[in-house]
From TrEMBL:
Record flagged with keyword Metal-binding: yes
Domain of life from the UniProt record: Bacteria
GO molecular function terms listed in the Swiss-Prot or TrEMBL record: electron transfer activity; heme binding; metal ion binding
Protein name per Swiss-Prot or TrEMBL: Cytochrome c domain-containing protein
Transmembrane regions listed in the UniProt entry: 6-25, 32-56, 76-95, 107-131, 162-180, 187-204
Keyword terms of this UniProt record: Heme, Iron, Membrane, Metal-binding, Transmembrane, Transmembrane helix
SUPFAM superfamilies: Cytochrome c
Gene3D superfamilies assigned: Cytochrome c-like domain
Pfam families per the UniProt record, alphabetical: Cytochrome_CBB3 (PF13442)
Domain Cytochrome c positions: 227-318
Keyword Transit peptide in record: no
Length: 489
């Protein structure tokens, strides 16, 4: 993955080169007066190449347009690109005007100062990019009323119209540039550009895009921990269950009396929807299309973080119900653990190693996840609440032990079973902390493709992985690409 430093390096390379070029020109001139021409075409090309490189790297770093347009890091990248483009334009324009005036030292001096200042500004922005923390990738606001939706079917007619409009607009921009550089007939160029812009007929946005809200691309900033999720569960039962039902099946006691049936808040809710838009719906209520609806807004009753907790609860619940089929990836719920060396840490503190999490049984007759020998490449974590194990973990045979009641209950949600039926359930977590596969008590004696492995796109898909070793390989071979921008606990 591209790092901040790589983006910053690309952003600082051009200004550094330009300043070096200006300094060299000055040295060649011998002292204060620049008598040799400033290498303008070279400067323009350098700035242009840098702008393209910064945009490409920034796009990767911010994971696409939403990140570029909505996050602090994205804004810095766009500002840098704008300054670099301006620099390229300024250098090219100065070059086009240089003949005749180039002989005058004050003119060249001013040109060098202008380019130097722009290069310095780009350098400062590059430094700012390099210093941004990971949180600067979090998307704060989506600035538009529409957003691209990969699931929206778009007709060929619409595509053709789009390309035509884009082509005409591109041509108009080229004419505007020409007007900037033209020595004569500027009005003609400008009129032609305006004419082309007027001709470009863009397709209506709803043919290409879905309606968006300010929070569309926001993700929960909260750590996905047992405590946050269970707190979300309590809030859900207090505020939402009356209509949506204690099982989130849309059959609450109040449901029948409502003008519209409350939605089922199960796996389908998370299939093709953005978390940020669900947050908006809960905060603002309504049917999401501006019509009257029985869904009240909770923006006043619940804080933004509390709504994230409710959504995280529903997400984990949905994973439990469906095994994650079709849903975007979820992180393994974070829990407090104590490891063999006596070290107390959290699940997030164990990242970097693939984890096996098993719910230990209290009695010998119950199914026990710890019976089979495990792959030595795995770090094992035993959930032992109610099992009567000592906290040192040795009696459970695992590297680390999570003995809390919250931990047990959170993983019961992830397994989709009541807490007293969790013993024997097993989970696989990859090096980055994503929950990748599970095996429920009573399932076939080996990990199979049927009990879902989460693919690299972050969605659950079947793989042919058979057994733990193959599963481990499959997880490593196809890591999940989406960044986890949540706070670590
Ligand atoms: C007074 C009853 C009521 C309560 C209380 C209620 N809802 Fe709803 N909710 C509805 C109804 C009815 C709809 C369907 C809206 C429509 O399409 O008109 C809905 C829709 C939704 C949707 C949109 C589902 C979709 O597919 O777009 C979400 C998400 C949601 N509710 C979450 C919640 C949460 C979370 C809470 C608790 C904080 C809650 N609701 C409390 C009645 C309620």
């Amino acid at each position: 993955m591209v790092s901040n430093a790589a983006v910053a390096l690309a952003a600082v390379a051009a200004p550094a080169g330009m300043l070096a070029g200006l300094a060299a020109a000055r040295r060649r001139a011998g002292g204060a007066a620049i008598t040799v021409g400033v290498p303008l075409p070279g400067q323009a090309a350098l700035a242009l190449i840098a702008a393209v490189a910064v945009l490409a790297l920034g796009w990767q770093r911010a994971q696409g347009a939403p990140g570029l347009l909505g996050s602090r890091l994205g804004h810095l990248v766009l500002a840098t690109v704008a300054v670099l483009l301006l620099t390229a334009l300024a250098a090219a324009w100065l070059h086009s005007r240089a003949t005749g005036r180039a002989a005058q030292a004050p003119w060249r001096h001013a040109a060098a100062m202008l380019l130097g200042a722009l290069a310095l500004l780009a350098g400062l922005l590059a430094a700012a990019i390099a210093w941004q923390p990971e949180e600067a990738l979090a998307i704060a606001h989506w600035p538009f009323a529409w957003r691209f939706d990969p699931d929206l079917p778009v007709g060929t007619q619409t595509w053709r119209r789009l390309w035509l409009a884009a082509g005409l607009t591109g041509l108009a921009l080229a004419l505007l540039l020409a007007a900037l550089f033209a020595r004569r007939g500027r009005l003609v160029w400008l009129t032609a550009a305006a004419g082309l812009l007027a001709c470009a007929s863009w397709p209506a946005p709803q043919l290409l895009m879905t309606e968006a809200t300010r929070t569309s691309y926001q993700r929960s900033p909260l750590a996905f921990t047992d405590r946050n999720v269970l707190q979300g569960g309590r809030l859900y039962q207090a505020h939402c269950a009356g209509c949506h039902g204690a099982q989130a099946d849309g059959r609450g006691p109040l449901a029948a009396g409502l003008p519209a049936w409350p939605s089922v808040l199960g796996p389908a809710l998370f299939e093709n929807r953005l978390e940020g838009e669900l947050h908006w719906r809960v905060a603002h209520g309504g049917d999401g299309r501006g019509g009257a609806s029985a869904m009240p807004g909770f923006g006043a009753a619940l804080g933004p973080d509390e709504i994230w907790q409710v959504l995280d609860y529903l997400r984990l619940r949905a994973y439990g119900v469906s095994g994650g089929m079709g849903m975007p990836a979820i992180p393994a719920p974070g829990v407090a653990v104590t490891c063999r060396d006596g070290r107390a840490t959290t699940l997030a503190g164990l990242r970097g190693l693939p984890l096996w999490i098993g719910a230990a049984a209290a009695s010998a007759s119950a199914p026990n996840a710890m019976q089979e020998p495990l792959d030595p490449r795995l770090l094992t974590v035993a959930l032992t609440w109610g099992g009567g194990y000592s906290a040192d973990g040795n009696s459970a045979g695992a590297d680390c032990v999570a003995s809390g009641e919250d931990a047990w209950n959170a993983y019961a949600l992830a397994a989709g079973v009541p807490p007293d039926a969790l013993a024997g359930a097993q989970f696989m977590v990859d090096r980055r902390g994503w929950l990748r596969a599970r095996r429920l008590p009573g399932a076939a004696p080996a990990w199979t493709s049927a009990d879902n492995v989460c693919g690299p796109g972050g969605r659950m898909e079947n793989t042919s992985a058979q057994g733990l070793g193959a599963l481990l390989l499959a997880m490593d071979r196809a890591p999940i690409g989406i960044p986890d921008t949540r706070r670590w606990q």
